[in-house]
Amino acid sequence: MGFGGISIWQLAIILLIVILLFGTKRLKGIGSDVGEAIKGFRKSMNDDDKPSVEQRKGETLDVQAEKKTESTSHKD
């Protein structure tokens, strides 16, 4: 017995049919796409653990204000 009542020979036949239908290049591309998707998912899960800009305390921004004069043209 194999997995859930499926023998190893039945799994081999299914694998052979899938390879014949899709070809090895397409299967390799699908595998690469799935791997990239899993990497992206893991990265996004790890990024959620890091505090965002709004949650960080004690940090300030160094900026300078510009004074606008009345002589600049405004589009109304």
Automatic annotation (TrEMBL):
Family as reported in the entry's similarity comment: Belongs to the TatA/E family.
Major subcellular site: membrane
Residue ranges of the TM segments: 6-23
Protein name: Sec-independent protein translocase protein TatA
Pfam families: TatA_B_E
Any one biological process term the GO annotation gives: protein transport by the Tat complex
Bias (Basic and acidic residues) ranges: 44-76
Keyword list, A-Z: Cell membrane, Membrane, Protein transport, Translocation, Transmembrane, Transmembrane helix, Transport
GO molecular function: protein transmembrane transporter activity
Region described as Disordered: 42-76
UniProt membrane topology term: Single-pass membrane protein
Quaternary state and interactors: The Tat system comprises two distinct complexes: a TatABC complex, containing multiple copies of TatA, TatB and TatC subunits, and a separate TatA complex, containing only TatA subunits. Substrates initially bind to the TatABC complex, which probably triggers association of the separate TatA complex to form the active translocon.
Functional summary from the UniProt entry: Part of the twin-arginine translocation (Tat) system that transports large folded proteins containing a characteristic twin-arginine motif in their signal peptide across membranes. TatA could form the protein-conducting channel of the Tat system.
Domain of life of the source: Bacteria
Location of the protein in the cell: Cell membrane
Recorded GO CC terms: TAT protein transport complex
Key word Transmembrane present: yes
InterPro entries on file: TatA/B/E, TatA/E
Lineage of origin: Bacteria, Pseudomonadati, Pseudomonadota, Gammaproteobacteria, Pseudomonadales
